[in-house]
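User: Could you check the structure of this?
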Amino acid sequence: MSTERPLIKLYRTRKFGEKISDTFDFVRENWRTLFKYVTYLLLPLALVQTFAMGSYMTNYMSIATQGTPDAAGILASVLPMGVVGVLAALILSALTYTLMDLYERRPGRLQGVTFSELRPGILKRMGRQIALVVTSLVVFGVLFLISGLLITALGYGAVLLLVVLWIAVLPLFALVQPAYLFEPIGIVSAYAKSVRLGWKTWAGIVAVVIVLYIIISIVQGVVSMPWYIMVILNNILGTQNGDAGVVSSFGYDVLQYLLGVVSSFAGYCLMTLLCIGTAYQYGHACDKVDGVSVDHAIENFEELNDEH
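Assistant: Sure, the predicted structure tokens are below.
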């Protein structure tokens, strides 16, 4: 990681290609720090999630091969997966945005950054995200309720219209998280800012999210393929023959579990791309719509004059 590279500023108007390239440039410059703290904070969750994933796949394959669903078993595996997934998302975004914040404000950028420097920002953003999640559940719960009432009143012909409306509306909320985690504003103000900026940069939001999601999905699919193959072989051969040789061995189970951990952990690492890309889309929208980069330059100039 070299601090001689040009600083990748958050608040700057960018073309579409620059949003993607800046996302990967940030990862390229700070990959050691990102990998270190993602490992430190999220590898334990990957270990837990892999157990739940293995249980879920076993129950799913039993349905596919034997037609005997185990509702209790599926629920017992889906519930931990959901809890771990939400917790991982909260930690990952809090960590990523804290690193991006320190990257611009810290003299040495992220070189030599310690966990004691990160802890306050992570905890603060974790707390703000919990409040944001609760609020979002209420907001989208109300929206889903309204959608259900419209379907009841207008019939299933309204489903297509509602799908189109949801596709059009959802990108407007994509910038709520960076707005709330980067700025000292309230939740309502973050929603209002996201809708206002999202309305004027809708196409850019959709393009960035789709491109990064495709990249993440392809890489995740490649990394996860060995684990999926081993799970399928284990369940099919184990079902057909109770003594399936290598497939039923302890070593096979250990290797399958380790590949599952790699798959889960790779998913966490890849999701940092979406967090970073969304943050740069937010910085682009702020500068394009509100001219934030000019305001920051004026603030820095005034601080410099105050020092003298």
